[in-house]
Design goal:
The chain is 30% helix and 14% strand. It is of the alpha/beta class. Strands 1-2-4-3-5-6-7-8 form an eight-stranded mixed sheet, with helices on both faces. The radius of gyration is 19 Å and the shape is globular.
């Protein structure tokens, strides 16, 4: 396996105010041979406040083992919940898709399919691209003519709606506490599905304790009505955030923590009195939440019932079969 690390924005292209020196990047896991392969861009969740590690490297290695070349996107988030993200995460994933395709020969994916796979709020980033890819024009002429439309999207326990069944904190971090009604409409994914929306594989658990399962049903029904190719699986039990639900996940391994780059930069800025537009209440919350600054995550103890491997843990193989038929 070859690994690569690349920032996706060039100097002067990226200007999110609360980045604190962070620039969105991809970590690539590439087969060390000359075979051309389909590829996957993985987008971790984290409520738009962070990119959690167990939804980065864990699924990346599963898709790698399926034979794909895989890239994990660390996109713009805001743990301070102070500077609304607006279009920035959508711009990040759009650039990431174009960035990877521009280097198709180098990454051994020329002429092959490109998929995106998101988790929770990362699924909202994926869904936003799936329905709005045509809206996102790249600022750099180098990417003119390079498509940002994925060949398919996997939406894992997705944040979809900005309506009654929304995950309020994700949408608040994305759009602010008083979002414009037009913005709410634009980022309610199920309301923007068209016949041109890429095929989607959707999965969630009925007992999801954080993002209501209705989100999955809303996007599946919108795709059915629009005639979009989709698969929809709802497993009977399981908590939110199961990632690939395999033995490594059960044993508490979450992968490398490079996806925490912006998180730790923002926490340091808060502690140093250099944060941007952060309320005093939020400053105190973050100081209490991260008293020691960047620390290595300790392995989780039995994060979920091991029997979930038998059903929820099957979703990557179900997705592999679905992708092979597109």
């Amino acid at each position: 396996m070859k690994t690569i690390n690349e920032t996706i924005w060039q100097d002067g292209e990226y200007n999110y105010r609360a980045a604190y020196g962070f620039v969105p990047s991809i970590r690539g896991y590439i087969h060390d041979d000359e075979e051309l392969r389909d590829c996957m861009v993985v987008i971790p969740g984290g409520g738009y406040c962070m990119c959690v590690p167990h939804e980065g490297e864990l699924p990346a290695k599963v898709f790698f083992e399926q034979g794909m070349n895989v890239f994990v996107l660390t996109y713009t988030t805001d743990i301070t919940m102070s500077v609304p993200l607006k279009m920035q995460p959508l711009n990040d994933i759009s650039r990431a898709v174009r960035f990877v395709r521009k280097r198709a020969d180098e990454y051994k994916i020329a002429g092959k399919k490109l998929f995106i796979c998101g988790f929770s709020a990362g699924s909202h980033v994926c869904g936003s691209l799936a329905v709005h890819y045509d809206d996102v024009k790249d600022v750099n002429p180098e990417y003119a003519g390079i498509s940002n439309r994925p060949d398919g999207a996997i939406l894992s326990y997705p944040v979809i709606t900005t309506g009654d069944h929304t995950h309020i904190y994700s949408i608040q971090t994305l759009l602010g506490k008083n979002p414009d009604p037009d913005e709410l409409e634009y980022f309610s994914i199920e309301k923007n599905v068209t016949p041109d929306t890429p095929p989607c594989f959707i999965w969630q658990t009925a007992t999801d304790d954080l993002v209501p399962v209705e989100n999955s049903y809303l996007i599946a029904e919108a795709m059915r009505k629009a005639g979009v190719n989709y698969a929809h699986y709802v497993f009977p039990t399981g908590i939110h955030g199961l990632s690939v639900a395999n033995e490594e996940m059960i044993n508490g391994w979450s992968g490398e923590e490079y996806t925490f780059d912006q998180l730790w930069r923002a926490v340091a800025a808060v502690k140093n009195g250099e944060s941007i537009d952060v309320s005093q209440e939020r400053i105190e919350e973050l100081k209490a939440q991260f008293p020691d600054g960047p620390t290595k995550q300790e392995p989780m103890e039995n994060p979920f019932d091991k029997t979930l491997i038998e059903d929820v843990g099957c979703w990557p193989e179900l997705a592999r079969v679905w992708m092979s038929r597109l």
